[in-house]
Request: fold
Amino acid sequence: MKRTEYCGRINKDNIDEQVVLKGWVHRRRDLGNLIFIQLRDREGIIQLVFDPEKCSKEVMECAKLLRSEFVIEVLGKVIARTIENINPEMSTGEFEVLAENLEILNSSELIPFHIDDNVNVSENLRLKYRYLDLRRDFMKDTIWFRYKVLDCIRKFMGEKEFIEIETPFLIKSTPEGARDFVVPSRMHTGKFYALPQSPQLFKQLLMVAAFDKYFQIARCFRDEDARADRQTDFTQLDIEMSFVSQDEIFTLMEDLFKKVFKETMNIDIKTPFDRIDYDISMDKYGSDKPERRYNMFLNDITSLFEKSEFKVFKENIENGGVIKAIVLKGKSTDISRKKVGEYEEFVKKFKAKGLAFVKYENNSFSGGIAKFVEPIKQKFIEMLNLEDKDIVFFGSDSKKIVNNVLGNLRLKLIKEFDLIEDKSVFDFCWVTRFPLFEKDDNGNWIAMHHLFSMPTHDTVEFVDTDPGKVYGQLYDLVINGNEAASGSIRIHNAKLQKKIIGITGMSEKEMEQKFGFLLEAFKYGAPPHGGIAPGIDRLIMIMKGLDNIKDVIAFPKTNNQLCLLTGAPDFLSIEQLNEIGIKMEEKNNGQE
RNA sequence: GGAGUCGUGGUGUAGCCUGGUUAACACGUCGGCCUGUCACGCCGAAGAUCGCGAGUUCGAAUCUCGUCGACCCCGCCA
Reply:
């Protein structure tokens, strides 16, 4: 029999109708003669009633056999429940289906965990039995929400006259940032493809191809360690446009997010988004992805300690370092010496050598480095706007380390003391003007973002003289302290592109071998262009207020890049290896 | 590559610090009773050699070492 309705959609219009339902046994309540079954499908749950006075003996016998997660087909009549039997907790709680016929389409073994949002299950099991985990409302709703966001994005891009174009998965390995996943070629023994870290170069080539406005919901692969907010393979909304300015890209994204948040969550977000220069964000928040929902800033107080007796600070300043401070308002009595020790351990992860602090209570300083603050008391209080019961944490090191240390301590304090007042607010901001290069540990210049970003007009002159002073037309979109999108205006000039790549120390020959195709393309009328790429997984995570990216991915991998469901990755047979010309070392081949 | 946390019936936990009878609790499962339940109820039962390996000990879930796996973090992630 053909299904006539989804369980979760039964409503007053169905009353007295005969319906055919198909679904999973969610719960069974056998009262002896009367049997209640909660039947679940993708739209929700409806209660079935098996009443011996209303159906045959055979149907009752069959209903007795039902167990959790059996798949059944039911023919029955929709009736309104009597008032005392209404269940206000259920969306279909005013109705039930009086069963007349029942067929068991499939049985189920005892499942490893209950299909219930209230049951705690280890992530291990959830990943191994993902198809069961996905039956739970929480997962089902998240995956549906994700689809709705993507659907909304596709419609928006269509309205704005973008064309969606697929780019290849098997591509040439180019030295960009992350490690490539590699795929051996059978037809060209010894050669390898790489999986794309992003469609970056192809979307630029599409601009050369005059498509003008491109987008793609693109899968990307990076062979780097995962994190709670970072998955090995992930999805980007990849966008590229010709003849655009940074401002136009910002406006497009602001319109997109405004629409997506309105249509999928009914939330009005404020546009345009604030903009912050990278340098300012680093100085103020110690991060290039500022969490701005709580006002606690990094204050540079180097000048106060130039003549200090405190050797640690003084020597640091003499070596060109900085002293910065953050103030935790009104919590001095909540923080014990032991607690400070914990914070000290925490900041050591970020290469801090220690954690100086001082408490300000009853107009005097105590604890930590109180002795050294006393001589500069008035200026110190003024600069940090200190009030009673404030506690100050100091960072003393190179600017880079201090920003990182206090930036992270700041986030920890905000979280630990639950300082964000309204967590339902979404705070958007653009971080702009990133430096194009930074020095690696060996003192070589490396691209901070990637090699294809256009320098800003006012710093392009330093490309030849001082790469460290070159800023890029680079931007990140930050939502609630998370990097949600990243993009830039690109270089479209072969000569400048070569020069930029050259700064990283790549020889002319290597450049030709790795990027020859791009440089060649730039010779034939490459238009000025730029783009951006919001991370879809992380966006969904932020919108849903989740803290684990696995929860927004249907089939995620573990931190170790394992798929617990299928067992990937796995060994290959000798035959498969021979075919691609790969010989494993004895210990690694998985064969006996 | 490094650090931390965790691993005990089907599931989630307690027990471990301070080694010692039959490894406890809740949920689930199975059987019985039950005609308005809705996390149904009541009665009864089964189910774990405590991730794996070695060591210490008369004796190890418990202590030690190793190993595997998961999570979280640093490095890494244009």
Notes: Residues 7-106 of chain A form a domain with the OB fold (Dihydrolipoamide Acetyltransferase, E2P) fold (CATH 2.40.50.140). Chain A has 17 helices and 22 strands. The CA atoms of residues 444 and 490 of chain A lie 23 Å apart. The mean pLDDT of chain A is 93.
